[in-house]
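Entry:
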Amino acid sequence: GLGPGGAGGRPAGVLLRAGGAALGGGGRWPVRPHPAGGLVSPASATSRLLALLVDALVLLAAGLVGWALLDSQVLAAMTAVEALAVLTLVRAVTGRSPGALATRTAMVRAGTQTAPGLWPALARQALLVALGLTVLGPVVTVALSRDGRDWVDRLVGTGAVDLRERHDPTP
């Protein structure tokens, strides 16, 4: 667990990446023991919803900038899709996105403190895009989450943690 000794039994200060391997080069792993000790808590539905909305605004902004610069709806849509691909890849490796940074949350593989990895992140994003065709699907899905997970997370094996809160495992 995420105890004071470090993530996954590693000494404090060892950084992680997807799959739990040690990460070199001064990178940072977002899910770690809380500075005050204890474990990070599951992200609330409100935090997850705010993160989703911030990410949606980032994608909208990418599309609008593409449209303004390229004067083409098709190229603007392609710009937004490329931004979504980058966002998904970054989330797969780091567990973070612009929305996660704003809400101080992180996406993790269920039951671990590691980033979700490529396939779970891609599967989650594909399902959210499909739900997005209904316009409110992703919002309702995330708003109804509990314990840092919604039905999509349960299906693909991911979850979200709140890096601001801590849970002290000792009574």
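The radius of gyration is 17 Å.
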